[in-house]
Fold this sequence. Notes:
Blueprint: E1 8-12, H1 15-18, H2 25-40, H3 78-91, E2 96-100, H4 103-106, H5 115-130, E3 134-140, H6 146-149, H7 159-173, E4 180-185, H8 187-196, H9 207-231, E5 236-248, H10 253-273, E6 280-292, E7 296-297, H11 315-323, E8 330-335, H12 345-361, E9 366-372, E10 391-393, E11 400-402, H13 404-414
Parallel strand pairs: 1-2, 1-9, 2-3, 3-4, 4-5, 5-6, 6-8, 8-9
Antiparallel strand pairs: 6-7, 10-11
Helix pairs in contact: 7-9, 8-9, 11-12, 12-13
This protein binds beta-D-glucopyranose.
Amino acid sequence: MNFPEGFYFGAATSSHQVEGGNHNDWSEWEKANAERLAREAVHSKHKHAWGNLPEYLLNTYPNPRSPQNYISGRASDHYHLFEEDIETAKQLGHNAYRFSIEWSRIEPQEGKFDEQEINHYRAVIRAVRARHMEPFVTLWHWTIPLWLRDKGGVASRNFPKYFARYAERMAKEFKGEVRFWMTLNEPQSVIGNSYMTGIWPPQKKGPISALQAYNRLAETHIEGFKAIRRADTQAKIGLAHAVTYDEPYRNNFLDRLTVNLRSYFNRRRFIALTRGYYDWVGIQYYFHNRISFPGRSHNENKVVSDMGWELYPEGIYHLVREFRKMGVPMYITESGLADSRDTHRADYIRNTLNWIHKAIREGADVRGYFHWSLLDNFEWSNGFWPRFGLIEVDYKTLERKVRPSALIYKEIIQNAHK
Length: 418
Ligand code: BGC
């Protein structure tokens, strides 16, 4: 594979999932829901369930059937160990690192910005830059400061305004040190999981609240984009879409219509609402579905992750071809799998990069790939048992161990410009 000069190869994390010690809407929700989540975590053979728990993980630490698994707590303690983790990324050949700033640390009280926490992220950014790696910084990876949760969070009419103030401040602080900003991570996941199915906080289930969240997040991206631009005219600003690759199960009208409607709500409508506010676009791909009307999935599931999600690397190729139409550079800002035994990760990375490479050869302007994730982390309502890391974390000792697949990724990177 011969990737374009300057192509970014890296991995991604998010603040709440790795830092530890956070105090936000999620940390509060976890404490209130951990016992219920532990009770509900039964092993199921149903392969399409969100977070299907396989038998071989039933007795791991923290135990998936104990409340402890569902409380982010000190997580992977990346807040204190970031220097070591970024150094490992460097050793693994990465030339970029995507991470997020935790809004609840920066603005713990409305309008009061915490200088010490700003300096923390300055240190993270400098640790990345010092290693000649490019920081890709996400401003909102789903967690909300408590004062804003109390005002209704995403549902608050002023959410876009609050976000823009925070975004502008960050862009001013880090002007000249951060070029790539991502306003929002995967609005679709929040709309779906918090407002449609109601499994994530604030568990406001219903089509009206979902539509309201949808529109508000589109507006938030636009306001965030403008705010960053005001602070730094050189900034390159994007947003990451969570995209599923759907195919009609049969080639008939209803199955095609189903696929069409899903992609309309999943991304086309959001892109239409935010058109003109992208210097680049982030694509994040985990799910492939062969869909029949009115939405049943018929996946072959030849290979699945620990969570039961079908591994279908080819999907990224079709998505890149679709996103080309936006006419802006594309970055694959997430792609990965929960694979505690590291049996599928290397193949998945290799095949995914092969498909991306094919799209580039055909003229697609893809400029980077970030594996999810750099290290094992807190997988939201599933807690710690899903293992997404290139680096394994022992949650008892916080000891890190590079997984073999990370070395294969390194080899691919080293041979990427030949
Ligand atoms: C999210 C991550 C998450 C990953 C795996 C993405 O949707 O951005 O936070 O851990 O998927 O589920």
